[in-house]
């Protein structure tokens, strides 16, 4: 409801105009009955007929105007509400830590921001128009029925409650099905997302038919559930028609009998009860309006049921609090690039039995180049993610520039810790636009200098539009190595105190890798450089190398020290170096 904001006035105006529209529609049959009765008099008064005719036309036009205004303000309020709701969700998601994002699948978040918001939008539109219109129509119609003919009105009440009971049973049955449908939406979206994300792999292994069958299965399952729910709801139509027809037959039988005989027999005594043709016509109209309003109300209930399930999923996102927040009195300056891990442990979930990192102790001086190596799954990426607080440590102390990372302003810390993540990502836009993510105010000279350091200038300059070359979403129109170098240049533009390269040169050749490392050493000597790599050649010149094994530090030292004393490093080096392997065999 907080997302309504500036659309409260259109919402209220919609309700007001709906109320006026209903009043006009309920008074119209009464005025029409007066016109019919006037025309059935022996001495016809033309002036009265003219007066009633004018009143009816004016009321019809007023009803049309009120209905149009209600529709306008209703659509404006609902569409605006959905816009605000999507923005609120998007803003909330951007505040999430990696741990928060791990709690939601990407496909589920897409469903919540599209299908679920649309369901809530439609329900809100129904609430401020139909949900007000239908009860008001029922109340006014019942009131006018009793004003017109108190005794005959009980027929409508009996039929109304009978139909209401049937519709309630239908709706309760449909609700149970709709509650299960949204999880199947997630499965469908997950199938689509997985296929698009892995389209190269799918085509490489010729698995298109498998992915098509998987999507068909998810789509068929969703269709089956929706069809079942719609079949239940479809019973509303026959129930409504039956109620209307029964109501009309009973009213016509009794009403026409009253009009013809002008009396009914109660307790064997004649009781005269006048019912004019005009009143009889008004009664049938009110009865039809009442039942139609109930029918519309049943559809509102269905929409609200769907929206309730959707709103719960939306609220889960809106109520999710980021696990990483600013301290009350944050520090806005990072002194230098020194890093200190003191007995640091970390696990991705509080319910996890085993730590991803366990008892990490590591000292890195400002300006040092540190290499990190280890087998897949040894938590190399996890270790560096703690430095910029993409995740928060579970135990121990982590200092940057001599200050606990939890005491820094998040924006300040992350502006001073540039991370080139393992998965390189470029956004749609020009090359210059992508690079300015690192520094929005970067000049073209600064951009070119960063590209020189990242060995990206050569291929960028080869493009016809150079730095104005358009990059497709995800960087699909550049190679993996080009993408990596652009991401490194983007990070360098931040002029960080700490630069983390998470296997960010794996797609470039060893010569280019060496040139990039040499450029770092010459042009950013005061920046602390942490390089995660699979290739020993990428880190062997580092000031120190950290060998990780299953979340533990197995050894710390220089290349020469580790070759002599560490079995894991030695094994990796020999497996990548033929000369080293030959020496090993000779020994």
Folded structure, characterized:
The chain is an alpha/beta fold and 587 residues long. The protein has two domains: 5-319, ABC transporter transmembrane region fold, CATH 1.20.1560; 339-424 and 497-586, 3-Layer(aba) Sandwich (Rossmann fold). The protein has 20 helices and 14 strands. The protein has helices at 8-39, 46-95, 98-102, 106-128, 130-148, 153-197, 199-204, 208-233, 236-261, 277-319, 380-385, 410-416, 431-435, 444-453, 457-462, 480-492, 510-523, 559-565, 567-576, 578-586; strands at residues 263-266, 269-272, 339-346, 357-364, 369-374, 395-400, 403-404, 417-420, 429-430, 470-471, 498-502, 528-532, 544-549, 552-557. The strands form four sheets. It has a six-stranded mixed beta sheet. It has a four-stranded antiparallel beta sheet with strand order 4-3-6-7, with no helix packed on it. The protein has a two-stranded antiparallel sheet with strand order 1-2. α1 packs antiparallel against α10, α4 (106-128) runs antiparallel to α10 (277-319) and α18 (559-565) crosses α19. It is elongated, with a radius of gyration of 37 Å. The model is unreliable at 263-273 and 580-587 (pLDDT under 50).
């Amino acid at each position: 409801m907080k997302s309504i904001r500036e659309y409260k006035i259109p919402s209220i105006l919609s309700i007001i105009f709906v109320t006026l529209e209903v009043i006009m529609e309920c008074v119209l049959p009464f005025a029409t009955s007066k016109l019919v009765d006037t025309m059935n008099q022996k001495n016809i008064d033309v002036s009265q007929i003219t007066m009633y005719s004018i009143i009816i036309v004016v009321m019809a036009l007023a009803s049309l105007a009120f209905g149009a205004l209600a529709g306008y303000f209703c659509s404006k309020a609902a569409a605006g509400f959905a816009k605000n709701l999507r923005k609120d969700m998007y803003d909330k998601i951007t505040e999430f830590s990696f741990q928060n994002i791990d709690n939601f699948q990407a496909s589920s978040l897409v469903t919540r921001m599209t299908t679920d918001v649309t369901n809530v939008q439609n329900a809100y539109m129904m609430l401020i128009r139909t949900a007000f219109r239908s009860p008001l129509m029922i109340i006014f119609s019942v009131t006018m029925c009793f004003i017109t003919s108190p005794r005959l009105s009980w027929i409508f009440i009996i039929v109304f409650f009978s139909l209401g009971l049937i519709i309630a049973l239908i709706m309760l049955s449909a609700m149970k099905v709709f509650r299960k449908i949204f999880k199947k939406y997630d499965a469908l979206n997950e199938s689509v997302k997985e296929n698009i994300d892995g389209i190269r792999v799918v085509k490489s292994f010729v698995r298109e038919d498998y992915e098509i069958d998987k999507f068909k299965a998810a789509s068929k399952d969703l269709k089956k559930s929706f069809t079942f729910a719609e079949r239940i709801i479809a019973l509303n139509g026959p129930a409504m028609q039956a109620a209307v027809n029964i109501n009309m037959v009973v009213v016509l039988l009794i009403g026409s009998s009253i009009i013809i005989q002008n009396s009914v027999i109660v307790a064997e005594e004649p009781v005269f009860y006048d019912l004019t043709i005009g009143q009889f016509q008004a009664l049938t109209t009110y009865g039809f309006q009442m039942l139609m309003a109930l029918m519309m109300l049943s559809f509102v209930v269905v929409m609200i049921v769907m929206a309730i399930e959707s709103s719960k999923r939306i609220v889960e996102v809106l109520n999710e609090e980021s696990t990483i927040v600013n301290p009350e009195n944050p520090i806005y300056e990072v002194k230098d690039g020194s890093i200190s891990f003191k007995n640091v442990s970390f696990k991705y979930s509080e319910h996890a039995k085993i730590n991803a990192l366990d008892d990490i102790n590591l000292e890195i001086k400002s300006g040092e180049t540190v290499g990190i190596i280890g087998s897949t799954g040894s938590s190399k990426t996890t270790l560096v993610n703690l430095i910029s607080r993409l995740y928060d440590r579970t135990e121990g102390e982590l200092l940057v520039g001599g200050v606990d990372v939890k005491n820094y302003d998040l924006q300040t810390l992350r502006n001073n810790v540039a991370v080139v993540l393992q998965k390189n990502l470029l956004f749609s836009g020009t090359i210059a636009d992508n690079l300015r993510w690192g520094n929005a105010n970067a000049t073209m000279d600064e951009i070119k200098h960063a590209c020189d350091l990242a060995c990206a200038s050569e291929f960028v300059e080869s493009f016809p539009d150079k730095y104005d070359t358009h990059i497709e979403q995800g960087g699909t129109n550049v190679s993996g190595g080009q993408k990596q170098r652009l991401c490194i240049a983007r990070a360098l533009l931040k002029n960080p105190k700490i630069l983390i390269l998470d296997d960010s040169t794996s797609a470039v050749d060893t010569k280019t890798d060496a040139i990039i490392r040499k450029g770092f050493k010459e042009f950013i000597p005061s920046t602390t450089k942490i390089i995660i790599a699979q290739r020993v050649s990428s880190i062997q010149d580092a000031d120190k190398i950290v060998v990780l094994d299953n979340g533990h530090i197995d050894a710390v030292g220089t290349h020469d020290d580790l070759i002599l004393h560490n079995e894991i490093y030695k094994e990796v080096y020999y497996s990548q170096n033929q000369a080293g392997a030959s020496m090993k065999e000779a020994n």
